[in-house]
Amino acid sequence: MSKGILTDVTKCIGCLKCVSACKEVNHLEMDVPRIWQKNDGLSAENWTSVIQRTGNRYVRKQCRHCIEPACASVCLVGALHKTSIGAVVYDSNKCLGCRYCMMACPFGIPRYDWDKTVPHVEKCILCYDRIKDGEQPACTKACPTGATIFGDRSTLLAVAHKRIKDNPGKYINKVWGEHEIGGTSVMYLSDIDLGFLQYQTNMGTKPLPADTAPAMKSVPFAFVGMGGVMLGLNWIIRRRMELSKEQSEEKSKKKESADE
Amino acid sequence: MNRVHNAKLILWIITGLAAAVALNRYIFGLGVTTNLNDSTPWGFWIGFDVMGGVALAAGGFVITSIFYIMKREEFHSLVKPAVLTAFLGYLAVIFGLLVDLGLPWNIWHMIIYWNPHSPLFEVGWCVMLYTAVLILEFSPVPLEKFSRYAKIRSFLMKFRFVFVLLGIMLSTLHQSSLGTLFLIMPFKLYPLWYSNILPVQFFISAVSIGLMMVAFESLVSHWLYRRKPETDLVAKLCRAVVWVLALYFLVKMIDIIAEGKFGLIFNGTWQSNLFIFEVLISTIIPSAIFSAPKLCKNVKAQWIGSFMVIAGMVLNRLDVGGLVMLGATGDSYTPAWTEIIISLGIVSIAALVFLFVIENFHIWDIQPEDPEANPHALPTFDYSSRAWLGNPNVSSITKHSLAFIISFAAGMALMPGNHLYSKGIDSIKVSRATGVDTLYINGNRDDQYVKFPHQAHIEKLGKDSCNYCHHLNLPDEKLSMCWECHSSMYAKVNFFRHDWHASAKGANLRCNDCHKPGEARSVKSAKSCTSCHPTYNFADTTNTHLKHYILSYTDAMHNLCVSCHLIELKKQLVKDKPNLAQCSTCHKAGLHQIITEDINWKIKLPHFNNVILPNAKQVEMEMK
């Protein structure tokens, strides 16, 4: 069963309890603001952050755990992968540090241990060890207002749509993460535009790995095709050269015979 | 042979600097030695060393396909240098990766852990296999020197055609797959560069850069060794590149027009200007130069044209590899000097190996003269002036090692000493609380008020409790307000005003009034604040006395309120009472709630009419 998180922006008070709970459970250290950090609060030691928006709104930023994650599809050693329970988890033993996942993520989530000699990719793993045992993630457990809740993705979607229906005018009629780039496990319900969470406001419903799929599928054909073209070309050119050689030989023979 | 000597000297200097930087990079990590950041995880190294490097090494497969497949025998003299350049180029790419990868010792993981969905997986395997093929392709050259390996050599020579064919097939794949890498970033890559046929574009441009790289490499090496340039051969390459560039331009433009992005080229943003510049120097100008048959045979035009194609195509790789993503990520990135020097250093090492191989193995049909063969040929003693002109015994090896050592030391000295850069905390000014009986404490939190029942607190805590919050006993019973001293939201602030205490119009004190006479006038030798202001009630006197620093606003508020509330909560476990230790009890979500709860608030406080609130109109409507 695919699990997920639903965050209701209108209920969030920005108390950062989710952040501190996350730090405690995942054994993340004190965070020093460093020059390579983005100004959205996420860092190698902060897997979730709360962004303050005008109009007294607090938006929790974390990994969206896409249904078809771009990061997992591009990882050449499969260090990142989507589990059946919904979490996109990271295996630091496999990683070789190419940072392609960071480039590919449309939400700009994965962070890097830039200051370490043995750096790893750092991102929310939906408290995979906890949810495997039937517990809920630390952040949703810590939330005092119920702004961020954990459950089956389908149930959460139903809850979200019910809230929109029951409170007409309170929310923007959209569940962020329901369909975008194939859907995400972490979803948002909001009365402000959440376009700032992603690189482009309208990202469409097509999962990102589908963009590379056609090019990757044509790889064997390109390989064999190029070989075939080259062999064919070589054969034609050789044949031509042989023919011209024969012709010139014949010509010279004819000349010789004519001379004789 | 001075040219070769001097070129090698420069290359060794760059290598020395790069070695120092690389050492620092492995000791201290990527963060402090580069400008890479969370928004730009791929910087100059991937753009130039890998994307550009692979493209620059395309000469190998292009020239072998011309020579072995298309049977153009006249290019024979270019094949060996081109294969050598390709081989060294791929080694350089791998070296570049070893510096750039976070965990370079895990690079072999791609052999055992597979993810065939990843374009990078395919690129990695292709580069690995192609490097192996290039070793097989090139090894007959060094093996030539050793007669005992003659059998192996003849065996390798027999299968040369297979290696060449494999090399071309593998090159086709990974040259194009470098473009596939970026297909997954449609939102980050600027639309002028993003295209569904990016792999095709990359392959065609790789062919053009390969042709020009062979030409340029021939020009440079012949210039260095003062040989007669291979003008006719290079001219043929230049003529061929016009067709490739035309095809590249056509494919690119058709794609842009078909996707309806044509308007973006001339919309005046920096991306559009960059695009025009890139296309001009990589495609339009060189093909214009080389379409004139006279200019094709002109050595100067060959230099300029081939360099333009190479620079333009590398710029294209840099653009796609991260430069034009800066618009989407919003963060800035300029490559640090360390990044550039490492890239140059890798190129330098490759160039040095190239020169070494050219001097010691049979690459050219005519061997270049050994610069070390006759050092005494130079005049060392001028008899007319009776002066030594230089020591002939200082060989080039000594000079080059000295250059390396000195530049390595210089590189170590240039590395930044402070490895803990910090952005610091944003200074956010705190705003004052408002209200009379009930205070509306705003802080900086954009109208998210916390209701503080002032009167209720006085009643509960007793009349002596004022100094819990109002630490300073100001004259005329003036209020000492939280925000005046705790003026920054998150940062510690120095609150002691030394100038005021020392000035005649202020406290008018002399130095010895506070500082102990005879001691250095520092914070340590000063009196405690409370010795003059006995009524001041600091939460932590030792700290303020020594450092004059006070807690940030959030820390102060939370220390004061939360610590007290927690105690109160333990004392009286009364049901149906609000949970005062819970953040959400005080920090309510939304101003709207507070205003509707306490609608008379605005009437009570007439001065509040001046304050424009986001929903002031709503309040007025409700009041009516």
Q: What do these coordinates show?
A:
The complex is a heterodimer of chains A (about 260) and B (about 625). With about 260 residues, chain A is α+β, with helices and mostly antiparallel strands. Chain A is about 35% helix and about 15% strand. Chain A is built from eight helices and ten strands. In chain A, β2 and β3 form a beta hairpin. Chain A is elongated. The mean pLDDT of chain A is about 90. Chain B has two domains: about 300 residues, Formate dehydrogenase/DMSO reductase domain (Formate dehydrogenase/DMSO reductase fold), CATH 1.20.1630.10; about 190 residues, no CATH class. Helix content of chain B is about 60%, strand content about 5%. Chain B is built from 31 helices and six strands. In chain B, strands 1-2 form a two-stranded antiparallel sheet. In chain B, α14 runs antiparallel to α16. Chain B starts with a helix and ends with a helix. The interface between A and B is large, with 78 and 78 residues.
Task: Give a brief outline of the structure.
With 260 residues, chain A is α+β, with helices and mostly antiparallel strands.
